[in-house]
Amino acid sequence: MKRSRPGVTGTRRPRVVVVAPPFLSHAQPLSVLAGALARAGCEVHLATAPSFAPLAEAAGVRFVPLTVTRNANTGVARSTRQGAREAERLEEFLASTRSGAVAALLTQALHRGEDLLGDPSAVLSRLRELHARLSPDWYVVDQLSYPVTLALHCLGLPYATYCPGHPTYVPHAPEALFGVPHAWPRAVRPGEQDLAALRRAAEAAEEAFTARFGEVARAHAPAAPAPGRAFALASPHAVVFGYPPFPWLPERPRGTAEFFYGGHCSPPAEPSPGGAWEEVVRRLRTVRRRLVLVALGTFLSARDDVLAVVVGGIRSHVPDAAVVVAAGDRAGALSPLAGPDVHIADVVPQRWLLAQADAMVHHGGNNSFTECVVSGTPALVLPFSSDQFCIAHDAERAGLALCLDPSRLTPRAAGEALRELLAEAPPGLPVWTPEVRRRGPDWMARRLARTMASVGPVRV
To answer: How confident is the model at residue 82 (pLDDT cuts 50, 70, 90)?
Structure first.
């Protein structure tokens, strides 16, 4: 039957469920977007793993427990409790990053089915039950939560897609393949044979995913339109990117959903983490004039060999710089590097530290990349996997960062790159920092709210 859209055509506020996978680097920005949607006038529920309930509370929205994958990462991947097979795949992935870009991407392609499409029928059942309880008007779903997107497609429910990484996570053309970077930074340029092998693996993964999508759709929604290419399935109404609107990014295909480039999806300000961290910064600034933050994300902090090379390079080539290192579960192993000029911690208050730091070394994850742009912090990018190569390319092309290959990194190369960044900030920061700050989660939420209001009644 037809149902009018309460709060859109009626009097109550539109009810939105934001679905986040159980990974901190995804759930955190989605919780920020959830809070922005609430400020835009929506009644919002954040549906994610129970361990992330505090994110909903911090965002001022309601929490709904929902499990969409067996994988998890609550802040440090190796320290997160999860199944044996999930832990085994994590170790296989980390080992592959030691062999370079293509080896890491090939391993991710081989793991893709288990990582991203574990039990789509169970997820569809959970979404159906959630919808019966809450009857939301709209959903917002992480692009990488493929079982959720498939379930919403099968159930015929209106949703917007949030892309958590590089915009090419949504394949933009028939020849584009998920998991094959559309562009590479200068320091990482695989050979043609390696690229051909990667394309074959990506094509096999897409074929398997698309076939599985078709099976699930035929079983649960035989009358619905076929989902088509699995990795290209996204909202027909709106796709939101927490990413700068670089002019060279792939154009939106004609006749498809609106693309909103929100610049970033981080909170407007990061409060002080307290006296202990303020004392760390004060102590480091006392012994050195500059401060460098080194953080490789919640997965790649396990690459303590790369962290050690970076610290060694700073000590030998940037003697006026102190260092804060986010080392995850390798903090103990790296503790011999600690000293008056180096502070090692398992986790760090990254956004707060960016306001104190003169430069950052990161892995090219979208959160770290956009946080550096928002704070105007020069960066050295060391891409290992996933979309990090595309992000490193864009950061380099926009004049926002330098990039080196972590699989061939030397102390001298790392130190000289940071010395260059500290001597003269990248020229793109004065251009892109104000543009990215002007956008953000509230900008995205207002546009999403307008899209929700513009879409007519739906059949449910």
So the answer is: low
Closest CA to 160 of 176, 149, 170, 171: 149
Beta-sheet pairing, 159-163 with 238-241: parallel
Query: Which CATH class, in words, describes the domain spanning 275-433?
Result: alpha beta
Spatial neighbors of 279 by CB under 8 A, at least 6 apart, are none
Measure Cα distances from 304 to 31, 353, 440 in Å.
30, 20, 33
Residue 350: predicted pLDDT: 94
Residues of the chain with CATH 3.40.50.2000: 2-265+440-459, 275-433
* Per-residue pLDDT band at 298 (split at 50, 70, 90): confident
* Topology annotation, domain 2-265+440-459: Rossmann fold (3.40.50)
Gap between the Cα atoms of 51 and 62, Å rounded: 14
DSSP letters spanning 344-378: EESS--HHHHHTT-SEEEE---HHHHHHHHHHT--
DSSP per position, 243-281: S---TTSPPPPTTS-EEEE-S--S-S------HHHHHHH
Q: Which residues contact 55 (CB under 8 A, 6 or more apart)?
A: 27, 28, 31, 46, 48
- In the chain, the amino acid numbered 312 is G
Token digits for 97?
């990053």
Contact between residue 45 and residue 62 where contact means Cβ atoms under 8 Å apart: yes
Secondary structure letter of residue 15 according to DSSP: E
Question: How far apart are the C-alpha atoms of 179 and 171, rounded to whole Å?
Answer: 10
Q: In 3-state terms, what secondary structure has residue 161?
A: strand
Tokens of 230: 């699995």
Percent of the chain whose predicted confidence (pLDDT) is above 90: 76
> Do residues 63 and 57 touch, judged by C-beta distance below 8 A?
yes
Find out whether 324 and 310 touch, Cβ atoms under 8 Å: no
pLDDT at 181 over 50: yes
pLDDT in tens, 344-393: 999 999 999 999 999 999 999 999 999 999 999 999 999 999 999 999 99
Task: Please state, in angstroms and rounded to a whole number, the distance separating the CA atoms of residues 231 and 30.
Answer: 20
Let me know: does 62 contact 56? Beta carbons within 8 Å. Answer: yes
